[in-house]
Write a structure and sequence with these properties.
With 182 residues, this protein is mainly alpha-helical. It folds into 2 domains: 72 residues; 69 residues. The protein contains 5 helices and no strands. This is ElaB/YqjD/DUF883 family membrane-anchored ribosome-binding protein. Keywords: Membrane, Transmembrane, Transmembrane helix.
Length: 182
């Protein structure tokens, strides 16, 4: 087949072809077709850009979510480790403190009894007097309360000082506290 035949599709004279449009009709159809094609291209470009932007946003959000999730998980693990350490350490310290108090009571039973008496006097002096107490003790009640409070205060101060000294000795004997390895 010759080039002419190829060009005209086997019709060298062009009888089977539709006549080409010329003039006003071509002028009106050409720009309209080009405008439609330009609009289609622009819409396609906008859709592609929107798709790429959405994919970029999705990736960024996913990345930030993963980082925030890891941060929260690491924080939770750290808090859980610290809480476990604190629970164990407080149990050890509680047992040590209880032993210290028990040994203080064993070594100083009279002082503990006097401290209990002083606490009873203090609490009793804070309670309002009854009519029976007023009749029985009358004017001596106020003086007795004042003396009892002063005595209770002195005993409480002495016991507190001895308790502080004993606790200081116990803490020095226990040595420094060690933090868990991280």
């Amino acid at each position: 087949m010759s080039e002419v035949d190829k060009h005209y599709g086997g019709d060298p004279v062009g009888l089977d072809r539709k006549p080409e449009r010329r003039g006003d009709e071509e002028a009106a159809t050409g720009p309209l077709d080009r405008a439609q094609e330009a609009v289609r291209d622009a819409a396609h470009n906008v859709a592609d850009k929107a798709s790429r932007t959405a994919e970029h946003v999705r990736d960024a959000v996913s990345d930030r979510y993963e980082r925030a999730s890891e941060w929260a998980h690491d924080g939770y693990e750290s808090v859980a480790r610290n809480a476990t350490y604190a629970r164990r350490r407080s149990a050890v310290e509680f047992r040590r403190g209880r032993r210290g108090v028990e040994s203080f009571i064993d070594e100083n039973p009279i002082m503990v009894g006097v401290a209990g008496l002083a606490a009873g006097l203090l609490i009793g002096s804070l309670l309002p007097a009854t009519r029976r107490e007023n009749r029985a003790f009358g004017r001596y009640a106020d003086e007795f309360k004042r003396d009892g409070l002063r005595y209770a205060h002195d005993i409480a101060r002495d016991v507190a000082e001895q308790g502080r000294a004993l606790m200081g000795e116990n803490l020095k004997g226990a040595g420094g506290t060690r933090r868990p390895d991280r």
